Amino acid sequence: MQSFLYLTFLPLLSPFTFASPLPSPNADADANPVPTPTLSNRATSPKLFTVQAFQSPDPTGSGLTGYYLSSTKSGSLILTSSAPSPPTVLYVDSDSHAFLNTNPSTPVYIDTATGALTAGSSVPNTGLTVPFYHLGTGKTIYTQENGYVTEGAAVFQWIGSENSSWFACLLAGKAGKYALVKQMTVVNPDLSNCISVELSAIDYP
């Protein structure tokens, strides 16, 4: 008995076919996603750190060098001249989300409405929760090498801005307290009265 194998050749699909995925059943929700970082990537023993400012080329005790990152009841993360009690402790997970090491952990984000570094259990639509980075390890606010003074051995950074620096902007009526702001085209905050700083990550404890 003779058998036959029949092959059907389909025409090649245009590559543009793959550029338009099928609509989601939750299309309205997908159009305006709310950033909701989870704790799924939190390490059993996260790399904890506090943050202090470095204002080039000033040593500790001059300018804003040595100022502490402090959390306020409103959720703002600001620089203060005195150390907060308890200390403001953070960690960054493997997906570049930053959290305050509270119980439960509190997401940290950049509010694109103002450019300000903020923390809160509920992240608004204007909040960007990535990409944060904690690079290096150490307990120094600044380092000196070949006559140059730079930030400490470890840094806390958010790289979603066209400018690598953080900007400390004096809060109206609050001497010694500064909002931390990132330069963003979408907001274009007025930074004329702000001070460029770097944020050194200090190993904790």
Task: Write up what this structure looks like.
The protein is mainly beta and 205 residues long. It has 1 helix and 15 strands, in the order H-E-E-E-E-E-E-E-E-E-E-E-E-E-E-E. The strands form 4 sheets. Strands 1-15-13-14-3-2 form a 6-stranded antiparallel beta sheet, with no helix packed on it. Strands 4, 5, 6, 7 and 8 form a 5-stranded antiparallel beta sheet that branches. It is globular, with a radius of gyration of 23 Å. Residues 1-44 have low confidence and may be disordered.
Brief sketch in words of this structure:
By secondary structure, the protein is mainly β.
How would you describe this structure in keywords?
globular; 6-stranded antiparallel sheet; 15 strands; 5-stranded antiparallel sheet; 205 residues; 33% strand; 1 helix; mainly beta
| Most strands sheet | 6 strands, antiparallel
Rounded to the nearest angstrom, the distance between the terminal CA atoms is 82 Å
- Series of H and E elements: HEEEEEEEEEEEEEEE
Please state the structural category.
mainly beta
Shape type: globular
The Cα radius of gyration reads 23 Å
Mean pLDDT: 80
List unreliable stretches of 5+ residues: 1-44
Beta-strand proportion? 25-35%
- Helix tally equals 1
